[in-house]
Structure formats: C-alpha cells, structure tokens
Amino acid sequence: MLPCIDVFDSYEALSRAAAERIAARLAARPSLCVALPTGRTPLRMYEVLADITRNRGLRWGRARVFLLDEYLGLGAGDPGSFHRFMEEHFLSRLEERPQVDALDGRAPDPEAECTRYEAAIRGAGGLDLAVLGLGRNGHIGFNEPGSSFDSRTRVVTLAPETRQANAPDFGGDPAAVPPRALTVGIATILESREVLVLVAGAAKAEAVRRALAGPVDPAVPASALQRHPRVTWFLDREAAAQLPGLLRTYQP
Ligand code: GLP
Q1: Most buried residue among 38, 91, 184, 249 by CB atoms closer than 10 A?
Q2: Which burial class, exposed, middle or buried, applies to 155 when counting CB atoms under 10 A from its CB (0-12, 13-18, 19+)?
Q3: In angstroms, rounded to a whole number, what is the distance separating the alpha carbons of residues 225 and 233?
Q4: What is the pTM (predicted TM-score) of this model?
Q5: Residue 139 appears among annotated catalytic residues
Q6: Ligand 1 atom 12: residue of nearest CA
Q7: Is 83 labeled as catalytic in the residue annotation?
Q8: CA-to-CA distance for 216 and 210, rounded, in angstroms?
Q9: Which domains are seen in the chain, by residue range?
C-alpha cells in the first residue's frame, strides 16, 4: 500500500500542515478519537493547533485524546513526564478540554494499567487518528526495534539510543532517563483508521528511508506502517533526504 508522503520546505510549514490536518479531522468529526505524541518534533504543531482552535472556534469538548506513551515511574506531576509535557505544550492552551486519557507511569500495577488503556481505546470506538513521531532508531511511540507487530499496550525497556536521545529532558544525563516505559502497541496503532507521521531533521533521514523504502521488519518498528492503508508522512527536506526520488513529492 502506497503511503502519502509530503515533503515541506521548512519545519514551520510541516508544523502548520500537521495542525491543519488535525483541525480538519476535528471539524469533520467533533467526537474525534486521536492519539497524540510527545517529543520536540510536534512542539510547533501544538502551538499552531491551539491558535487555530482559538481563532476558528474549533471545539474539543467532545473529542477524546489518548497520549501515546509515558515513562514508567513518572506521573502527570513529574517533570520529564509525557503527561506533563502534553499539559504544558497543548492541553493547557485549549479553552475547552477534550477528554484526556494517559498511561499512568506511577500506576501500582503497570501491566494492569496497560490492559486498562487498551480497553479504554477500544471502549472509545478505536482511534480515528494516530499522530506519531519517529525515533532515530525507527521507533514509534516507545515501540523499540524488535517490537512485535502484534504488540499491544505494554511495558517496554527503552533502547540505549532512546535514553541518549531523550537525555536533554533529564538534565542531559542518559542514566537519568527512566529505563522503562509504557507504550501503546504497534497493533493498536495499526488499528487506527488513519495515521499521520511527523518527522523533521537530518538525524531522522536514515530512519525515514528504512521505514518507507526498506523491508517491513520488526527491526524498524515504523516499517509496520507500510501495512496500513491510510498513512500520511509529513517530512521536512532534511528528513526526506535519503528517500529514493520516486517517494518524494515536494510541497510549495
Ligand atoms: C520519543 C517518544 C516518541 C517520539 C520520539 C521522537 O521518545 N516516545 O513518541 O515520537 O521519541 O521524539 P522527537 O520528536 O523529540 O525526536
């Protein structure tokens, strides 16, 4: 199945297009059920989306938001937690809050928390849209290389390169990054009715090539998306640099 790949001239253009895509889906379906990512990549998208929401009177009140992942041991109150990140960078900017569900990294029984989350997504009618970032090692959510494509929401061990990449959020020390996390699974993501992947920067170019132009292989978790019928990749030029020409379609 051929994905839709849009390459933008700048991070700003990519962020605006992504915000517009989510806004369009929410306008068309006020009860939108959407999974949202953390990370540096979507930061500007969240700013623009909050602005669009305000300026166009878009309503989030009937929507449901599921956060993709969380560090084991961290809760909404902890600096470094993804729940806190989403509150700070997106949710607190909305006048009308969606119903938000997040994996609780401090849950006494993390496995039970994952089961609860999976059931909550199912109970919401499944995801209409999963918005994803991409790790340099090809991860989606915190589904690290080797994750089964049948995987569901679960506790995972983070790859050393992921702890290295996320060290800036923990004072620059990879050892300070929690070693484990809870993440929505690959099968859960593949069941979403639509997927939007945002990738920016040269450091991701190889992961983008392997995900889109390489074999479908659990060594590259994002390659699982080749099996999804409705995926859009929004890339900046740097992230698209290693793609074969045929896979590149530039946006003005
Ligand atoms: C994080 C998250 C992912 C995110 C990825 C890329 O650790 N678990 O959901 O997409 O890594 O993050 P960034 O956008 O900061 O490169």
Answers
A1: 184
A2: middle
A3: 10
A4: 0.96
A5: yes
A6: 39
A7: no
A8: 9
A9: 7-196 (3.40.50.1360)
Q: What is the pLDDT of residues 100-148, one digit of tens each?
A: 999 999 999 999 999 999 999 999 999 999 999 999 999 999 999 999 9
Active-site entry in 104, 144, 169, 238: 144
How do residues 190-242 score in pLDDT, each as one tens digit? Answer: 999 999 999 999 999 999 999 999 999 999 999 999 999 999 999 999 999 99
Question: Do 179 and 163 form a contact (C-beta atoms < 8 A)?
Answer: yes
- How many angstroms does the Cα of residue 41 sit away from the middle of ligand 1? 7
Q: Which residues sit opposite 195 in a β-bridge?
A: 130, 231
**123-145 burial by CB neighbour count: b if 16+ within 10 A, else e?**
eeeebbbbbbbbbbbbbbbbbbb
Taking Cα atoms as reference points, which of 52, 19, 22, 49 lies closest to residue 34?
22
Helix (H, G, I), strand (E, B) or coil at 130: strand
Ligand 1 is surrounded, with C-beta below 6 A, by 37-41, 68-69, 133-135, 141-142, 162, 166
69 assigned to active site: yes
Ligand 1 atom nearest the C-alpha of 141 is 9
pLDDT at 40: 96
13-31 pLDDT, tens digit per residue, is 999 999 999 999 999 999 9
Contacts of 19 (CB under 8 A, 6+ apart): 45, 46, 48, 49, 52
C-alpha 136 – ligand 1 centre gap (Å): 9
User: Per-residue pLDDT averaged across 52-68, rounded?
Assistant: 97
Looking at this protein, which amino acid is placed at residue 144?
A: E
- C-alpha dist (Å) from residue 133 to 69, 171, 176, 200, 203: 12, 22, 22, 9, 13
156-173 residue pLDDT tens: 999 999 999 999 999 999
